[in-house]
Design brief:
CATH architecture: Distorted Sandwich
Largest sheet: 8 strands, antiparallel
Distance between the termini: 63 Å
Number of domains: 1
Number of strands: 14
CATH topology: Glucose Permease (Domain IIA)
Radius of gyration: 17 Å
Order of helices and strands: HEEEEEEEEEEEEEE
Shape: globular
Structural class: mainly beta
């Protein structure tokens, strides 16, 4: 009985430590790039006219975060945070790509005339988003900007003239993987 309790406790503590890991990341030292906001697997790349909740279109690059990925989110570009908005809505399974009506926290960063947005979307299990930035903050590319608990997704909206360097199925690392190059 005591051995079972100890093993269960050790497994639980191990899960918590692995899940809450926050490794140091080193963004590329290049200008004109956009890096991944989240660790995970790219599962959608598509042009959009307007992202639900904000008047910003471009190219959507969506990253699915499994419970085994690092869940710390990082700034995709350096710039001023010009919008932070939380949209209440349904919590869906993290694999769902339904954005309309889903709960999300959206952040828009103005990097000197180039606007890039990301949406932190909690899954039905995750249920909680931690956004560490507010309007008026200045962020550096790769800086920690938030966290989503358990399986979830992050949508990245980049300008329509950006040259996308990833493809569906690619695994990416927040703050390090170059998602797009600005033209």
């Amino acid at each position: 009985m005591a051995l079972t309790a100890i093993i269960t406790l050790l497994l639980f503590v191990s899960f918590i430590l692995v899940f809450n890991r926050d490794p140091e990341r080193f963004p590329p030292k290049e200008s004109g790039i956009i890096v991944a906001v989240a660790d995970g697997k790219i599962d959608e790349i598509s042009p959009i006219e307007e992202y639900p909740g904000i008047e910003l279109g471009g190219i959507l690059v969506s990253t699915f975060m499994s419970p085994f990925d690092v869940h710390v989110n990082r700034a995709p570009i350096s710039g001023k945070v010009v919008l932070v908005t939380k949209i209440e809505g349904k919590k869906r399974i993290a694999l769902s790509k339904k954005r309309e009506g889903s709960e999300k926290t959206i952040v828009v960063i103005d990097g000197g005339g180039v606007k890039v947005a990301y949406a932190q979307i909690p899954g039905i299990i995750a249920r909680r988003v931690s956004c560490l930035v507010k309007e008026g903050d200045y962020v550096e590319m790769g800086e920690r900007v938030g966290k989503i608990l358990l399986g979830s997704r992050v949508d990245l909206i980049v300008p329509k003239n950006a040259n996308i360097l990833v493809k569906v199925g690619d695994r990416v690392k927040a703050g390090e993987t170059i998602i797009a190059r600005l033209s």
